[in-house]
Amino acid sequence: MPDRTEIDALIELMARLPGLGPRSARRAVLHLIRKRALLLQPLADAMQAVASTARECLNCGNVGTADICPICADEKRGNGQLCVVEDVADLWAMERSGVFKGRYHVLGGTLSALDSVGPEELRIPQMVTRIDAESVTEVILALNATVDGQTTAHYIADQLEHRVALSSLAQGVPIGGELDYLDDGTITAALNARKRL
Amino acid sequence: MPDRTEIDALIELMARLPGLGPRSARRAVLHLIRKRALLLQPLADAMQAVASTARECLNCGNVGTADICPICADEKRGNGQLCVVEDVADLWAMERSGVFKGRYHVLGGTLSALDSVGPEELRIPQMVTRIDAESVTEVILALNATVDGQTTAHYIADQLEHRVALSSLAQGVPIGGELDYLDDGTITAALNARKRL
C-alpha cells in the first residue's frame, strides 16, 4: 500500500521507543489517528517544541530548556550539598520526593570496564571541579544499588576522601515493603543497618 | 521547575497513549531527548505528516492518506468479496496475512446496547449500500470472537440473509496452539467444527 508510507514510517519510529514494540506502536498510532485533533497534533507540536529547546545543563547534566538548569540557577539550592545520580531519571525521582534541597550532579551512567566507560565519560572530572567552585561540603551518593552503581560509588568515594563529607542513601526495607517479598540482600542490609529504638 | 514545562507537557501527552503510563512516558521522553537528532526530530516530523494527511477512506473506513484508500481504489480487489471487520487494526491484521484479495468494510466498533451503539453508528447502512454498488457476492464476517462481536455478526447476518453468500472466520485451534493452554470454548468450537481427513 504505497499510500500508507507516512503512517508506516510513524509506526516504525514509535516502535523504537522504550516500552513499545511493533504491535503496541501500531495500536498507539491508530489511537493517535483516531484522535488527530485532540492528541496527534498537540503531540507533534510538543515534540517539535522539545526537539528545538531541550538541552543538557552544562553544569549538572540535568535536562531542561536552558544552558543552566533551574536547579543550578537557583541560589537557594547552593547549600553545599551535592547529590550524585546516575541518570536524569534518577534526578527527577529525587525531585519528586521533594526532600532534597541541594544541587545535583548527573554522571550519565556508571563505570563499566566491559563497556569501557571510564571516569572521563561520566562527568566525574566536572564533579570534582564543581566541589571547589560551588563550595560543596557534603556529597550524597544516590547511585543505584546495583553492582555497577556501587562500583562507581566506591570509585567516587576514593576520589573525594578527606575532601568533603560523603554519604550514600540508606539501604533497607522500602516503605510498604513486606519481608516475605524482599530479596536476601535487602534483608541482610536492613538487619546490618538496624536502628536502636 | 518552570523551565521544564515543554518537557512536562510532552510527558503528559505521551502518557495518554495506549500502553504507556506516566512512568513509561517519562522513560520514553528521556530516551527521546537523549536521541534528539536520531529519533525525536524524525518522530515530530512523522507525526506532523500523519496529522496533516491521515484520513478515513470514505468508502470502507480504512485509514490512509487519501479520500479513497488504495484497496478501494484497486480495481483488481473488486472481486465481489467483502470482508467486514470491527476496526482498522483488524483490517491491517488481515492484510498482513496477505490471504484475502477482496475489499474490506470497517464497522468502527460493535453493536452495544449498554454504550447505545446502534447500526447507524457502525457504518452498517454504508455496507448495505456498497453491496449493491460494488456487486458484492460474498460477505465474510471477520469479527472478533467476543460476545459483542458475535452479536454484531448475527445482526449483520439477519440484515443480509438471502441477498449475498455469508461466511465467517472458522473457529478452532490456532496454529501452534497447545490444547493444554486453550480455553474450553475454543476446544468445544474446534471439536464441533472437526474436519474429516
From TrEMBL, chains A, B:
Keywords: DNA damage, DNA recombination, DNA repair, Metal-binding, Zinc, Zinc-finger. May play a role in DNA repair. It seems to be involved in an RecBC-independent recombinational process of DNA repair. It may act with RecF and RecO. The gene is recR. One of its GO terms (biological process) is DNA repair. Gene3D superfamilies: 3.40.1360.10, 6.10.250.240, RecR Domain 1. SUPFAM superfamilies: Recombination protein RecR. Belongs to the RecR family. It comes from the Bacteria. InterPro entries: DNA_Rcmb_RecR, Rcmb_RecR, Rcmb_RecR_Znf, TOPRIM_dom, TOPRIM_RecR. Residues 80-174 form the Toprim domain. A zinc finger (C4-type) spans 57-72. PANTHER family: RECOMBINATION PROTEIN RECR. This is Recombination protein RecR. GO terms for molecular function: DNA binding; zinc ion binding.
